[in-house]
Amino acid sequence: MAPSLPNCRNYKVPRDISFSGSGFLATYQLGVALCLFKYAPWILRSAVCVLGASAGSLIATAVVCEMNMFAIRDEILQFAKHVTLFMLGPFDPSIKVANWLERLLHKYLPPDAHRQARGRLGIAVTRVTDGKHLILSEFHSKEDIVQALLCSCFVPGFSGYLPPTFRGEHYMDGGLSNIQPRLPDSSDVTLTVSPFSGDADICPADPPSNLEMVVGSAVLKFSMTNNLRILNGLYPTDLETIEEAFYNGFKDAIRFLQINDLVPSAMSEGPEMILSDGQANMWKQNRTELEDVEMKAENTAVESYSSTWTDGSVEPEPFRDSHFHFDVVKNVLLGNASTYLSMLRLPARILSSLLLPLVVSFYALLQSRQRMELLFRQLPEIVFWTWHGVRQCFLFFVNIVVQTLKKGMEERQGS
């Protein structure tokens, strides 16, 4: 049974809850939400509006629709692990952040998510054309929520070049206009949650820092530890840090409840508390088990591939992948060319060697003709929206510098 609203004179119940932009460190906010659902569910369920920007909008949706926090955490960890396999990380063209997010939402969002979220879920977005910060809160279908989240999580270059639309209007990452969203007409208390150390109500408790930076309506500590968190949120380099952020979020949420006398001060700070012994052990071993399953799957795939070609009774089915087909044809061309060149004299060999790259390039161009035609048809649109994206990102960083300098000058004058 959910605990009733406690009678605490020192704590004002928040009207709204805000989850900041967080990137891959959204696992921290998942840990916070899990802790609050366990020990103070009335904070989450009595909130008039739950807001989120960028990846924080996904956590806000998970809170409102009461999705499986462990499942979302595992999905983020698996995707982060996949991203680290590429040199450019999430900026690699083959990484489809939007496709992953859309699949995740269709998998875990309940069919009536729009009814649960209507008027209560606030998804922060930035309008591409003028950079205005908006809160989307009216949803008429599950697909509306999916599209709004795709808009809120779209970072130019990171998620693609063509921004998604919501009801005919193009939007991008809500964190570019305000990383810690708040309702414009709300004067009541807003509970803020951020995976970066700063002025948020629930955030990592780093040592005091003399340097701070203003990002939208949030103030973040400018320290090496915090900068590494920001880097890991954008470009995951350490999977253990992303996984540990889940534990840290849970522990920081307990500390917040203890400071406000909402839970006993002598309380363990581990997510295993909400599970049975068997489930806790399974959860701790989850990462190792997943790696074992992946290794077995890779070995099975290799064995299956090898057996298909070594089994003389079965004729292998032609492989249809265009890249593989191109590699085969290229190798055949090169092999035939090498044989042909061996029968020519030196001047003819030199001339043929010089022409060979042109032949291979011409064949590659023919193979990608359709893609090139599509690119040229979309080129004006890509240039147009890329310009808007670059402009908004530039203004985002300029605003950080200006607001940070302004805050520093005000503090010096006040002292």
UniProtKB/TrEMBL annotation:
User: Which protein is depicted?
Assistant: PNPLA domain-containing protein
Q: What SUPFAM superfamilies would the database entry show? A: FabD/lysophospholipase-like (SSF52151)
> From the UniProt record, which GO molecular function terms apply?
triacylglycerol lipase activity
Q: Which residues cross the membrane?
A: 42-65
Residue interval(s) of motif DGA/G: 173-175
| Active-site residue numbers | S54 (nucleophile), D173 (proton acceptor)
* Residue span of motif GXSXG: 52-56
Lineage of origin:
Eukaryota, Metazoa, Chordata, Craniata, Vertebrata
**Keyword Membrane: yes or no?**
yes
> By its UniProt entry, which Gene3D superfamilies does this protein fall under?
Cytosolic phospholipase A2 catalytic domain (3.40.1090.10)
Q: Name one Pfam family in it.
A: Patatin
Keywords (alphabetical) are: Hydrolase, Lipid degradation, Lipid metabolism, Membrane, Transmembrane, Transmembrane helix
Any one of the GO CC terms: cytoplasm
